[in-house]
Amino acid sequence: MSFLKTIRGGAAAAALALAALPAAAQDWPAQPVTVLIPFSAGGGNDTVARSMGTALEERLGVPFTPVNAPGAGGFVAAQRLVSGNADGYTVSHQSLGTFILTSLMNEQQVNPLEDLEFVAQMAGLTSAVAVPADSDYATLDDLIAALQASDGSMTWGHTGQGGFHHVNGVSLLDAIGAEARDVPFKGSSATRAAMLGGQVDYAILSSVNYLGFENEMRFLAFFSDEADAVLPDVPTVADLGLDMVTVQTPSVWVVPAGTDQAVIDTLSAAIEEVVATDAYRDELLSLGITPTYRSGADIRRLVDERIGGWQDIIARVSAAQ
What we know:
By secondary structure, the protein is of the alpha/beta class. 45% of the residues lie in helices and 20% in strands.
């Protein structure tokens, strides 16, 4: 077979493959896309979703219209998403760590791993151990030594039972064989204020909570395998050789299961382009949020690798309540 015939044959095969796709997948996006945001307007996650939507409008040529649908750890938005058509014209932003942990705490109408497809990650938040700037604990080793030597009366703050900060805090204690009393607060601002006010010995927070308080608090380590882009000089538990279960909460876009792969691939590729831009990265870093791209397949692989450890911790925490 000649080279020209090979090229023609390949082109014909590609044309046939394209013709086999549903018309909606071939033309997507041909109309405005609704972006369900499971958070109230004005917060960090809301800002990330809106920033991405604006950038995608420029690349894909249609409006990406944000609609806030807060509640139930992301499941109000998820229920609305799966109740519609799987055509790519309604997508949802999700804070995946919190979203999946919520499903492990209590059975939900939407199964994140069966009813949804992960499109791509656009950002991420990671927990860190935080202490006041004048704390005696200069390093995580200092804090671990104090916890191991204590009688279990030390206290730590977090943003709520079953959230990713809480799970990371419990996992740390499991890894070092120590006990301490956890104190939940309503939100990260209240947690930070309690830690700075000496109501708890340490807290589990994120980079978002550090900005603006640089002279008042110190981060000892992030619960991650990778350095935080906002505070790259703070070590991770992996850097320190601590073997423990960790939970991050990637900001991802999801679509209903059954959405055509061509639609998912188009949206994922556009998200990857946006995350690589200086404008997007600078905006997120100014908010204390790490810009990160992962494909939907990579996100699913990460969840599959770690969900067993999350389930074990959630089961133990639930049994102790």
